[in-house]
């Protein structure tokens, strides 16, 4: 009860008095992220929703917390509880919509895309597709915002993923977005292993 009340207070502060949270944002984010793994599903679900609310209200102020939070939320996407899975995916969606896209993309590629669990890879690929579509091939392949080799290798890996949804719905869609860039074939030859080509 106390933890749920505390999370509710943080949510209210984020909505009504976000400037109060800014000086201690890392501590607040860390405290809420720890509660995501709480054994009580009610507390865990409420913490997941609170993180989504922090992303929605504090937007780019949350950039420095993205790596830590994305890792924990992605872990919860393969939870046995359906509402925990959906809540974690919803909060990741709010993260992608509100923080710096390059920051979100880096976090998703670092922890989700290479995960051994199929559900985690699928969720990461879904949100990665959103960032790819929002940024567009010009920005993505310019090399200024993210490492082009890592991006191309990641997209090629997802386009060959063992899970059908990850492969068809997300991996190949990302590939088709990048293929619209005239220099994509050159980047693919530079960074893609020959067997993938």
TrEMBL record:
Classification via Gene3D superfamilies: Leucine-rich Repeat Variant
GO CC aspect terms: cilium; cytoplasmic microtubule
A GO molecular-function descriptor: microtubule binding
GO biological process, one term: microtubule cytoskeleton organization
TM annotation in the entry: none
Domain CLASP N-terminal as annotated: residue spans: 20-167
Pfam families to which the protein is assigned, alphabetical: CLASP_N
PANTHER family for this protein: CLASP, TOG ARRAY REGULATOR OF AXONEMAL MICROTUBULES PROTEIN 2
Protein name as annotated: TGRM2 protein
Lineage: Eukaryota, Metazoa, Chordata, Craniata, Vertebrata
């Amino acid at each position: 009860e106390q933890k749920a009340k505390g999370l509710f207070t943080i949510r209210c502060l984020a909505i009504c008095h976000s400037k109060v949270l800014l000086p201690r944002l890392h501590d607040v984010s860390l405290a809420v992220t720890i509660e995501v793994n709480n054994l009580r599903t009610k507390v865990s679900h409420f913490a997941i929703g609170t993180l989504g609310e922090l992303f929605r209200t504090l937007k780019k102020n949350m950039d420095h917390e993205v790596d830590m939070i994305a890792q924990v939320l992605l872990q919860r996407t393969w939870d046995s509880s359906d509402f925990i899975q959906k809540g974690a995916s919803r909060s990741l969606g709010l993260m992608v919509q509100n923080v710096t896209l390059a920051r979100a993309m880096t976090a998703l590629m670092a922890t989700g895309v290479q995960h051994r669990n199929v559900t985690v890879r699928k969720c990461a690929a879904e949100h990665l597709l959103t960032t790819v579509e929002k940024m567009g091939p010009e920005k993505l392949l310019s090399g200024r915002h993210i490492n082009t080799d890592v991006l191309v290798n990641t997209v090629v890996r997802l386009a060959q993923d063992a899970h059908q949804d990850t492969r068809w719905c997300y991996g190949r869609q990302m590939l088709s977005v990048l293929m619209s860039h005239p220099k994509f074939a050159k980047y693919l030859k530079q960074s893609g292993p020959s067997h993938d080509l």
